[in-house]
Amino acid sequence: MARRKARLLTGVLFSLVLVAGACADEPEAGGGGGGGGGATPEPEFTTLEEGVLQVASCLDFPPFESVEGGDEVGFDVDLAEEIGTRLGLEVEWVRADFDTVFTAIAANQFDMVAAAVTSTGDVGAERDQIVDFSDPYYNSRQSLAVNVQETPDVASTADLGEGHVVAVQRGTTGKAWAEDNLVPQGVQLQTFQAVSDMFRDLEAGNVTGIINDEPGSAGAIEAQGLEGTVEIVEPIDTNEKYSFVFSQDNTGLRDAANQALAEIIQDGTYQTIFEQYFPGVEVPPEYQPSA
Ligand code: ARG
Predict the structure, then answer these.
(1) Does residue 115's CB lie within 6 angstroms of at least one atom of ligand 1?
(2) Over the chain, what is the mean pLDDT?
(3) How far is the CA of 176 from the centre of ligand 1 (A)?
């Protein structure tokens, strides 16, 4: 629950102005503010604890969310903290296992989830029946990673069948994709709580492959120094988009977060954060400021 002090330079000046305004308007009281200027009125919202945005995350899914030197870092972390700042809220991070976050947020155990959560895509997930999602903020897809030294012959999921064990994280769209597509081929699935453990087991040759979000697998390979041993051999287009997650009881907070997210995209802050975590990758047009 450490609080993050570092903040992107570009966001600072703009955020300070907004915080000052938001504080004066006491957003917690549900007053919503809507201070001056005739701009879009701010949606009214409440949080569990006044002035605080409790955000749950696994915090072990780089480059989206992880802990470095005691500080929460990552693309989702920076975006969530930017949203908090613009709503006049201090972000408090709550660590949670991925497969528990949906029932927990539905039961109002925290205000928001930021965990590279897929809100729409080709892979079925019943989570949308019990939670609410923000507008999308990142486009993603699945992938197959293998140990290229142990199994240089496995180049795609078509090469997997009887006798192969594939690792998936509990509660994820990757698990759903593997159940739909690999189990019918005779592949056996092994479920894990943490992504880092899947990669450790793949490095050790205990599993044949991992089905996981492509950017999350790329992040794990880098963070765990597995380049040259473990590689992504096949991206799998599942058209997934990530969103922040809210309780269906708190549509005001979701609306306020959506408004902040739209501003973050429109003023170029999104672009700055994106380029920090995905250097050399072009920001998709839908997340660029519109003319
Ligand atoms: N995007 C996938 C899903 O929503 C996987 C997310 C895994 N996130 C994590 N923090 N481990 O199911």
Answers:
(1) yes
(2) 89
(3) 11
Domain of residue 177, CATH code: 3.40.190.10
Helices (H), 139-250: 173-181, 195-203, 214-223
Per-residue exposure over 37-59, b if at least 16 CB sit within 10 Å of its own CB, e if not: eeeeebbbbebeeeebbbbbbbb
Rounded to 5 degrees, φ, ψ at 238 are -115, 5
Any ligand 1 atom below 6 A from CB of 213 = yes
At residue 126, the pLDDT reads: 83
> Quick one: 123 and 145 in the same domain?
no
Residue 180 shares a structural domain with residue 124: no
Q: Are residues 54 and 130 in the same domain?
A: yes
Q: Distance between CA atoms of 234 and 151, rounded to whole angstroms?
A: 14
Give the count of domains, the chain: 2
If you average pLDDT over residues 133-146, what whole number do you get?
A: 98
* pTM exceeds 0.85 for this model: yes
Residue among 7, 10, 148, 203 at smallest CA distance from 90:
7
The answer on 134 and 9 residing in a single domain is yes
Protein residue with its CA nearest to atom 5 in ligand 1: 172
Atom of ligand 1 nearest to the CA of 176: 12
Task: Evaluate: CB of 244 within 6 angstroms of ligand 1.
Answer: no
Q: Judge if the beta carbon of residue 142 lies within 6 A of ligand 1.
A: no
Reported in sequence order, the residue ranges of the chain that DSSP labels E, i.e. its strands, are 52-57, 60-61, 65-68, 71-73, 90-95, 112-113, 118-120, 131-133, 138-147, 165-169, 188-192, 209-213, 230-242, 245-247
Atom number, ligand 1, closest to the C-alpha of residue 117 = 4
Q: Is the pLDDT of residue 179 over 70?
A: yes
Q: Which of 30-34, 94-98, 270-274 has the lowest mean pLDDT?
A: 30-34
The Å distance, Cα 225 to ligand 1 centre, comes to 21
123 pLDDT exceeds 60?
yes
